[in-house]
Amino acid sequence: MSTLALDATLTVVRKGALQAAQFPDAVVCVAAPAGERTSVPLGLSVLTVGSSPECDLKTSDPSVSRAHCSVALTSQGLVLKDLGSKNGTFIGSVRVREAVLPLGVRARLGETELWVESTGMTAELPFSADARFGDVRGASVVMRALFAQLEKAARTDEPVLLEGESGTGKELLARALHRASARAGQPLVVVECAALSPQLVEAELFGFVEGAFTGARESRVGLLEQANGGTLLLDEVGDLPLDLQTRFLRALETRVVRPLGSTEARPIDVRIVSTTQRDIRSKLHQGQFRSDLFYRLAVLQLRVPPLRERGDDVLLLVEDVLAQRDPPAELGMLPPGTLELFRAHQWPGNVRELRNAVARLFVGDDARGVLSAPDPKAAKWSGLSLGEARAAVVAQFERQYIESALAAHGGNVTSTAKSLGVTRQTVHRLLRRDREDEGTGG
Questions:
Q1: Quick check: pTM over 0.85?
Q2: In 120, 302, 362, 417, which residue has its Cα 20 to 30 A from 133's Cα atom?
Q3: What would the mean pLDDT of 200-220 be, rounded to a whole number?
Q4: pLDDT > 70? residue 59
Q5: pLDDT for 124-175, tens place per residue?
Q6: What is the pLDDT of residues 259-289, one digit of tens each?
Q7: How far is CA 89 from CA 99, 136, 256, in A?
Q8: What's the pLDDT score for residue 25?
Q9: Helix (H), strand (E), coil (C) string for the chain
Q10: Contact by Cβ (8 Å): 345, 311
Q11: Residue 326 burial by CB count (10 A; 0-12/13-18/19+): exposed, middle or buried?
Q12: Nearest Cα to Cα of residue 200 among 418, 424, 409, 431
């Protein structure tokens, strides 16, 4: 076995009413120059490696950054990812940002070596008997294992951090987590961290009293207090301003908020769920995110896998998308060869891309065309009115244009908006519209 491929090596077992996946057990090891060796078991959680005592796998090697790299088990193998380290991460003589690390092959972090080795035993991972969590559907083992972790998390009040690419359904899962918890009857307040105005972010979170600042004509309850008794969802938490993070952490630890301009401390009882598509550990390394706040928010850190790692979930999601059409459609109505092409596709846009691809099949595109870069000039929009076709072309263009611009600016919304000559609110509006299109698969 050259790579540790979860879906290819597991066995499903039943224990009464419960199910579990059994797969070859392995450990992630590091060895420092002086001979010091440490290791941790490999699971589905993202493991951090570095010289910081807060990392999952620690080394005393001074040439290793505090948060040097991460390792995560995926259906394609163990993925090694550099976190913006000073001295780099190497496999052989090749410096890598992200790569699959085969069993037994050694990577180099500074003067330290990292590798994965099998214990020769079998590990067991509980997974949900349900192929759905809230509005997110998935029958693959990686998704059902995630659902099992979320079901367990729903029975606690511990903070949860959901990490994953855009379009994987992080916000849908966060909302489902709230609905499955004991706080379901209480408020769910969503904070879009990237959309908060830098000048008003403190007032938005903590509230203010009349006269606290120019323009404060009446008192207003902050988002933290609005979520009292329920859940506060921090969407893209990595964009929370650095200068606000200290006060936010203090509010979480003391469980009180003090509105701007007030001397009154008000008690709060809030469960925090956060999402991010960026790797916050890189921001930790760069000093852009407080480590104490990160470890306060990431008590349970869960990775939401991209669609390309979810095997036959593609078929299930296509069925869902077809069933939601008006009138509903079936798999047999798709052009010949569509499902084979869909299974082989990498889906960089995840479920959002899949939904758009299926929709385009019903306006005249062929199966290959919907999986290549769409060209509005060449698209076939037969069957639609002129107004509908125009709206579809414009929406498609805006989506691709914004995503391309965001990628060129490293996901920074402010820089993207400035380069496009639009406001940050416009960029966020387009992103929110895309998020609403994610649908059942997330």
A1: no
A2: 362
A3: 82
A4: yes
A5: 778 888 899 999 999 888 898 899 999 999 999 999 999 988 889 999 999 9
A6: 888 888 899 999 999 999 877 877 887 888 9
A7: 10, 35, 42
A8: 82
A9: CCCCCHHHHCEEEEECCEEEEEEEEEEEEEECCCCCEEEEECCCCCEEEECCCCCCEECCCCCCCCCCEEEEEECCEEEEEECCCCCCEEECCEECCEEECCCCCCEEECCEEEEEEEEEEEEEEEECCCCEECCEECCCHHHHHHHHHHHHHCCCCCCEEEECCCCCCHHHHHHHHHHHCCCCCCCEEEEEHHHCCCCCHHHHHHEECCCCCCCCCCCEECHHHHCCCCEEEEECHHHCCHHHHHHHHHHHHHCEECCECCCCCEECCCEEEEEECCCHHHHHHCCCCCHHHHHHHCCEEEECCCHHHCCCHHHHHHHHHHHCCCCCCCHHHCCCCHHHHHHHCCCCCHHHHHHHHHHHHCCCCCHHHHCCCCCCCCCCCCCCCHHHHHHHHHHHHHHHHHHHHHHHCCCCHHHHHHHHCCCHHHHHHHHHHHHHCCHHHC
A10: no
A11: exposed
A12: 424
- Taking only the tens place, the pLDDT of each residue in 336-387 is 888 888 887 878 889 888 988 888 887 765 566 666 544 444 344 444 445 4
Which tokens hold the place of 100? Answer: 């699959």
Q: Are 79 and 91 in contact (CB under 8 A)?
A: no
For residues 239 and 16, which has the higher predicted lDDT (pLDDT)?
239
